[in-house]
Here is the input.
Amino acid sequence: MEDLPGWVNTMKHIIFVILLCFASTTFAQSGGDSSIDDIEGLFKEEEAQDERRDDREAQRASERRRKKEEAPDEIEDLKKLETFSDIAVIQKRYLPKTKRFEFFIAGATNLNDAFFVGNGLNARLGYSFTEKWSVEGMFSYIQNDNRDVTSELLERGVTTDGSVSTDSYMGLDLKWTPIYGKYSYFNEKIIPFDLYFTLGFGQTDPRVGSSSAGTRFAEADSSYTIKLGTGQIFALTKWMAFRWDMSFHMIHADTTVRLRADNSIVSQDSGFNNNLFLSVGLSFFFPEANYR
Here is the structure.
């Protein structure tokens, strides 16, 4: 083969260089486009995360505004709160009683005596071992007066010798307080209360009715008494409370009617007599509760 002219060889070298440059450029462009796509994908993913985060924040802010708008203004609106989402009240006892003394002073009246009007004073001193259990000593004095019907019966010659009422009572109670709650006072104030029950035993100094005839008189010995009761304590402060008490006394009385002339016995009777008393007053608690 004859040698090619020099310009032909030169053209070959130029074409080879051009082809080499074109191939390099093409490879670089294809590789560069892939890298740019990856970078752009990262930016787009970050922007999507930011948008999702903004959406969540906006949703939370909207939820907070909704709950604030739906916050109850009245006590009865508390039922609208969502369970485990909104909490109305979490509070310890406003008036704790554990290891405290209670002094109760009250006016008392007999509600069920058909022949006597009985009004007096009721004083109690108790000690609470726990919030539910306590003991209480009690003394009451009742001033009895004849009802109008009793006086009319006496004028008509009808005897009331057999009627028995309470002049005074002294005893000891076991008090159980199973219920604790709160009252709403005209949607303006919440008043905590305790509901209790008592079982007691004591002694009654009874009063017996007068005779229509002046020739006879009645007497009764001090009698043992079984007492059942219930009541409520409404906390006013951490040391003072309003309290009402309803007590049912079952009095075992032995009565004797005698002639005034020779003190001879006309009749004798033994049995239970029932008295129902209502006491209303104030309770004072001490010492100061420092464990609440």
